[in-house]
Amino acid sequence: MIGRLILALAAVLALAGPAAAQAPPPHLTLTLSPHAAGGADSYLGVRMVLEHPDFKAGEGLVHLPLTLVGIPTARYDGDALTARDEAGPIPLSQSEEPPTPQGVYHRWSVARATVGDVTVSFHAPPRRVTAATNNGPLFDLREEAGAFLGAGVGFMATPVRPGPWRVHLTWDLAASAPGSIGVWSLGDGAVDTVGPSDLLAFSYYGSGPLKRYPAATGGHVSFYWASEPPFDPADLGRRVRALYDYMAAFFDDKGSSYRVFARSNPYLGTGGTSLAHSFMFGYNAPSKPTADSLQLLVAHEMAHTWPAMQGEHGDTAWYSEGTAEYYSLALSWRARAIPLDKVIKTLNERADAYYSNPYRALTNLQAAERFWNDPVAQTVPYGRGWLYLIQTDAEIRQASKGARSLDDVVKELRRRQVAGKPYGIPQWLELVGQELGPAKAKAGYDHMVSGGLLVPPDAAFAPCLAVERHPTRLFELGFARRSLNDDRVVRDLVPGSAADKAGVRNGDVIVEVSDVNKVRADETLPLVLTLRRDGTRQTVSFTPRGASVEGYRWVRNAAAPASVCRF
């Protein structure tokens, strides 16, 4: 689940905002030069030319987060990042911007007024990862099989001025292997577009001897990878294209382009992160993922392309993640991309994850405060939003006698977004209120926001499925989740927890750990830790579960034919 953290950042990436139509924005020319040496000498050269910005002394030039959601970015200490203009080198001062919930941005500011165009240059080093690296969002720049893959926010210092800019991106592949290509979320090779500074940060870049599906360039949906994966990439590529076309048609976005990037992780875990009309997913080759096992991951990330809601992430994550969960499954079923048994299995896995989440009863605000530091807290909006949307859909169908559904509300909210109209929480409540009545719409929303228990209504997916009680046990790791990060030292052991009873102690070094995500998904599975204490190793095994709590799941109604199954 942690790897599927999306952040809902794609919502900020309006590729051509209203300001672009009012006056021609200034040019921003970006040249990327890959140097993949396979070691410490590897880097991705970045040269950015800003057209006549006329900076004043002390004004911010570019910035880059030091970390983002726990993922470290490239560091440009000292004079690793330079700038010059028509008057020569520009002295730069460095500072940290006020912290945000996502992280702290490092800023480079000009020490004098600038003259003419300003050129910013730096070499972006790829991040080195090992089997001990913590799984997380795919923002960092990596080198793999002679290729570079990563998000701009992981390595690119972008203009502090928000833009929009007339972006011209090119690739200098002179130092790359024969047959190498350069790819951006918005296109292959040289790309011209208009967009904000954030577009450069929250989009993906790939270069080198990448393989692709389809093999020819020019397709509106493309899939890229570096190492040969354990699954059939052509099969997954065909699925990506078919599902994208179905989803794009559903959301009235036919003809748009999309790119998918894949990279291999040396650590356990599979997950993806969605950015501007693209997403990247990581896989662990020894785990042998298949196209079937990746199907819903692909669908979830793809669904993030369309539904969005204005507002702070903590207030709206239930919608961005909830709609991605809801439509990844619903549209996969409607497109006949997955069978009914997988739909039911997925419904119940998601329900179990919601009911067993130890943070389930937190308010949206409380969950948001933990969101960036605890992967389990990060999953609260997924289950909460998804179940709330299921409830809302069932209520709208009942109130309209089957004439309307959640689809009508979500698609209208997107139409407002595309039209440049407000599309936030007030508009959500307005639209749901038109279906159910304002008081009922507000009461349901407030219950969800406050962390109230969400129970699937009997009408949800009836008559195909029926709801039944299914108590579950809270997931309880027994020590701070950050203990599984790169330093791997046990902290904040919970007295009396299963970990404590199994012999885990504060200060233990975690040498090896089984797949936490798999263990969390199945309350019968034990977590296995290899610990080092006082120079000796020991292996402990325990089931990371706490108290039994109320839960629900769906079962197939054998009397109902498959033809009545609607999702």
How would you describe this protein?
With 567 residues, the chain is an alpha+beta fold. The chain has three domains: 2-303, Immunoglobulin-like (Sandwich), CATH 2.60.40.3650; 313-461, Neutral Protease, domain 2; 472-549, PDZ domain (Pdz3 Domain, Roll). Helices cover 28% and strands 26% of the residues. A seven-stranded mixed sheet has the order 7-6-10-2-1-14-17. A five-stranded antiparallel sheet has the order 11-12-18-15-16, with no helix packed on it. Strands 19-20-21-23-22 form a five-stranded mixed sheet, covered by helices on one side. The longest helix has 22 residues, at 313-334. It is globular and about 75 Å long. The relative contact order is 0.10. Residues 1-21 have low confidence and may be disordered.
In round numbers, the mean pLDDT is: 92
Q: What's the number of domains?
A: 3
Whole-number radius of gyration? 24 Å
Instruction: State the total count of DSSP E strands.
Output: 30
The count of helical stretches stands at: 14
The proportion of residues in beta strands is 25-35%
Uncertain parts: 1-21
Helical fraction equals 25-40%
* Broad CATH class of the largest domain: Mainly Beta
Major β-sheet strand ordering: 7-6-10-2-1-14-17
Biggest β-sheet: count, sense, barrel? Answer: 7 strands, mixed
> What overall form do the CA principal axes indicate?
globular
Task: Could you tell me the CATH topology label of the largest domain.
Answer: Immunoglobulin-like
| Structural class by sheet pairing and helices | alpha+beta
CATH A-level architecture of the largest domain: Sandwich
Gap from first CA to last CA: 22 Å
